[in-house]
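Notes to self after the call with IL:
- keep both proteins in one doc
- input above output, always
- annotate only the second one for now

Protein 1:
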Amino acid sequence: MAQKNDLLDRRRKLEARISTYEHRISVVMKLDDDATWSTQDGKRSDSFFDQEEPSDDILEHYPEGWFTPEMDRITFPSALAPGEINRLSLKSIAMVEAELRKGQVTDALDGLSLALGEKSLCFRTEVRNANSQRTTHRAWDNVHKFDAEARQCRSTYRYARNALHRLPVDQDYLGTLKDITEDDMKVAGDLTDESRFGQRSDTLPWFWGIGSPDDSNGPRMQECECNVFCFAAYLIRA
């Protein structure tokens, strides 16, 4: 019951923030009654609440699972159906969202790499060295925690990537945003095994590399190589 109350409180706060945002974005975007929405964003098309804040007795009037503001569609240019951005003259606003989505993609990939690295390090240093049932359970709990964080980052990346496909974005950039498979969620031995340090980097998933192949000698790739080297050195010392 305590967890349900905490979840309800969080959803109430989220609903209030969504309502405030929707009021402000309606002034900026000025959508007409003929605006159509995309069916690819995975969100509900109908908002459960009006602009008013939900009442305290909401669970008494609606069944379990109806009060889920996290599933409501948020008004973004990327949530509109194809052609609506040009029809409503929202290209300038769509370009702003595109830049924000690019930052979201970068943050998600950085978080994914970090979570996978922490998961691998936890497995190598805690699970393998656990000497009792209690420490084993604790070590596996940490592994599952980092795995959940990695999957959350992958979900954020996929959502931002899908939004970018509906925005005016350079196609060459979209070509660099590949899908993240289950195999990509595994950390290669090049990063976790000191005996394999220095092996070919093409065994790593694509998101471990920063920059395009044409920029292999650029400052961003050199920074990536430095970060990978430092991370591998940290694993070796551990």
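Protein 2 (the one to annotate):
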Amino acid sequence: MIATAKLRDQGQSVWLDNITRALWRSGSLRRYIDELSVTGLTSNPTIFDHAIKNRPDYDADIREKLEEGKSGEDLFFELALEDLTKAADLFLRTYEATCGVDGWVSLEVSPLLAHDTRATLAKAKELYTRASRRNLYIKIPGTREGLPAIEEAIFAGVPVNVTLLFSPEHYVAAAEAYLRGIERRVAAGLRPDVSSVASLFISRWDSAVTGKVPEALNNRLGIAIGKCTYKAYRTLMGSSRWQRVFNAGARPQRLLFASTGTKDPKASDVLYIKALAAPLTVNTMPEGTLKAFADHGEVSGTVPADGGDCETVFDEFAKAGIDINCLATKLQDEGAAAFVKSWNELMEVIVSKSAALQNAA
């Protein structure tokens, strides 16, 4: 049995952190589903930026959208929704077989709205309606301004992938926003089974401290953050407040490990996958990491519900002068800024590609 199937059997879902037109048109995504136990996928502006800029796969559709009067952001969402609805259809069998636990794809609202609660909520509702797919998450950042939008989206029945989480505290804030939305649905007599995942970014922690701590601490902080957040996740699920909504028909907001591609060329290319095998969670992997883990990955055990050695590791980093709470805030702020940068670059690609295609017509 290949390692990705072993992860599935241990209770962790394997998702792909990639979507391109070539991926589903070529049959590669179907093969990943059938052969590598992939049960969902995520996307982001950078993925679309590279795909649209570097390949001609979107050119014909861009010409068509331009003739329809579409441009800029609206044109992009037309392209993205086509890719993601095709992917959602491929995962529909998984979605139905798991009663909606798996089989999800994710589309992100514009990161320019990250600090605008009302606009984020409006866009989330619009995109979910336009997609018209039960198994599509709308990605909303778990920033201070994003948390109310998450609560309102869940109350409105929009499934949410909460993104840009970097710490147990970020996760708990996002989980409580989700829970408030569910509790309000229960109180209003609405179905409480609105799905959500909470995406915790892992590898950026290690990139942030490389060269600032003793070499023996390299590539250990991200894993410790993942373990500590898993502890918080399991503690919340066992709380009386969560048990009440479960009893009313709600389902857990699953913890999702994101940014799990190894950045350090000296480290194992499956470092974070092996270390963060955890029941009741998702790991969304870049395509190269997915293939590497299927080829030579190992599943030797799972993360304990109590977080294992995470606190000991935190003590070591504290002694090395790392303020984890301050760094978490910095990483979230930098992450939001990086998302905006990627989005602006994507819009520039849409404009330049559109101009080039119109001039060539």
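Annotation: The radius of gyration is 20 Å. The mean pLDDT is 95.
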